[in-house]
Amino acid sequence: MSISFPYLRFIVVTLFALLLLNGCFRAAGPDLGVRALRDQTEKHSLRQAELAFLRADYSTAVLLLDGFLRTHPQSSRSLEARWWLARAYQKTGNRSLALEHFRFLANTRDWNLYQTDARFRMTQLAERLGEPMASGSIKGILASLGSVHTPSDVDSVISANRKIDGSMILLDVPCSVDGNLQDNGQPFSFDTMRSAIQHMHDRGTAVYLGVTLRCLGHFARERKLENWKDGAYDPQSGTVRHSTYYSLHFWGYQAFLADWLAQLHDLPLTGLVFRNAVPVGLYEGFSPLAVQLFAREFGVDFDPVRMFNDDRAVYATDSNPGVHLPAMFWKWAGWKARERLCILRNLVRTLRVRLPHLEFGMTLQPQSITDPIRGLIHFAEDWVDVAHGPFDRFLITIEESKPVVVPVTEMIQHLGEPEKIWTILPQAVHTRTQSGILPKGVGRIYDHRGVP
Fold this sequence. Notes:
Blueprint: H1 5-54, H2 58-71, H3 78-91, H4 95-106, H5 115-128, E1 139-144, H6 151-163, E2 168-172, E3 176-177, E4 180-181, H7 190-202, E5 206-211, E6 229-234, E7 239-246, H8 251-262, E8 271-274, H9 288-298, H10 304-311, H11 327-354, E9 359-364, H12 366-370, H13 372-379, H14 383-387, E10 393-397, H15 405-415, E11 421-426, E12 443-447
Parallel strand pairs: 1-2, 1-12, 2-5, 5-8, 8-9, 9-10, 10-11, 11-12
Antiparallel strand pairs: 3-4, 6-7
């Protein structure tokens, strides 16, 4: 049977096309495999460098990250690697190279995830190095989450920050009781917080979130945390009652805090600040577990009711620190301060793994700095020990009628790094001379919470 020429030509063309396509598919297979292998290699290399950073092995992190950028200069992960490298250089004390990489991230033509924070850190480092581009000490405002429920509310806060040439906003999560904010704001909403933070970040502002850990249990959505409430001594009745707030000693509550704060991982935050809106005062901290742990460590029969009722001393906040206090109280006060700091250190260590991009700040009471005995008694705070903790920033709230320089100067002498200290000042102070006498490098945050 003869085959017509057109039909034969169709068969030849079809066979040729099939062979060509088969060759293309075979060639594409290795290319896809190479790309997948390269992607896995990059991901593994960057992860190893990040783990070195999280272990505080900053020298190794620098070597790994620098090697990553040299080996994979066109990688889609190069900006992330440069972000980690800048921070690793900063941790090793090489501020010049840290500034170089932060500047690169801050000045990229196209927006990148790290740009806002890089600009913020670049400004701080430039000032530290004395470069002319620095615009002065870090400035910003403290705003309440309870006052930013609408986009116009957020715009108002951003506008107030711009009026003082601020580059950051500390957004404070107010303490609450049963979900109701104490500053007459609306009930807490994680979605509202997310929206406010995102809006501030999109406007080029670095955002820190302030939380008081003893209050966060009130925001539990699905479970009641009554068993983790603290105990407070009531001088009028002479008994220990349930506190309104939570005890950090319970392992379950510590786990709750880590999980709740881990929800922040996808928010464009620069840092997290442990505030102290309700400090563990003289009469707080007597949860059954804390009392049990203290008694076991010192091998004593500890009863806070007997300790207070038998002594009958006046334990007022403004009392003379030399007032007679029983020996058992001093053991208790020292133990309470050490345990609190230990819990905070462990929490920061956990959160640095889950929130690796964040800085961590800690609020200190100025009274603890000027009068350490009073700080120990009334705030369970030994500021020198806290200064040795894993914190990047230390915040001090200064009242308008109190002298500013003394506690700040003392902290600088101890830390040697004034840029790690931020003062929270009354809103009206920025127009006066008092904030101008702060040492160079100390940050200024103006309290905007009471401003309508």
